Predict the structure.
Amino acid sequence: MADIGRRGLLAGIAALGVGACSKMADSDTARSIFNAAEDWHRAAHRTLAGRQNLAPEYAPEDRSPSFRGNGSLTVDSDFYRQQLGQGFPDWRLMVGGLVERPLALSLTDIRALPQRTQITRHDCVEGWSAIGEWTGPQLGTLLDAAKVREQANFIVLRCADTLYGREYYESIDMVDAYHPQTIIAHALNGEPLPEKNGAPLRARIERQLGYKHAKFLTGIEAVASLDDIGAGKGGFWEDFAGYQWYAGI
Ligand SMILES: Nc1nc2c(c(=O)[nH]1)N[C@H]1C(S)=C(S)[C@@H](COP(=O)(O)O)O[C@H]1N2
Ligand SMILES: [Mo]
């Protein structure tokens, strides 16, 4: 989108001629082209700049005494129970799809990356909120390590659990994927992620509503289109109950 913005502005400038002289600027056509380009650029800039804004961050004393679990509270498999008991030694987060260098990251790998800690408020559409402190690498760090391809427009977040018999999944666009507060969290309030909150890994996408924050993460997949993922609406609740794909807050 930034490219289109730049191209739009350049096209506007090219239409005016480099260093448009006053004679040209006097013509109504030139003025309207220039204004259109400028309005477009300003609008695109405002939109993109807005989407990079940070969600509010809070102080340690603001943290909710307990962070409730919602939706799936566990993964119903022998592998999960066994891994949970051992601290997830064999859990792998796959980073694949439209990437040059697919990765299979262990929890040790994830903890060894540069970390971000943020105290944020989680808002669920069901009408509750909670404040928690999350720690993990930025999703952007993982995508850069995997060398995400230019054709990628979305990141699909794959989960280990099922809800009402269907695999939970979510997806976000590249603006949210590279938002500084979008992290792959392995800790809540300084402790390993509790089972009910998505152990061992869950997404935090702080400018989005709760259902986008996929828990029990197994994979991160870069795709060009969401059409062939799940039922094509970009997420479990989007497919199942018509929730909005863009859940920005
Ligand atoms: N894998 C998975 N991720 C999920 C869900 C789920 O059921 N399964 N529920 C979502 C919803 S609706 C919310 S509000 C949050 C709840 O996170 P919490 O359990 O840590 O409160 O997780 C989201 N991510
Ligand atoms: Mo939710």
Summary: Residues 2-241 form a domain with the Sulfite Oxidase; Chain A, domain 2 fold (CATH 3.90.420.10).
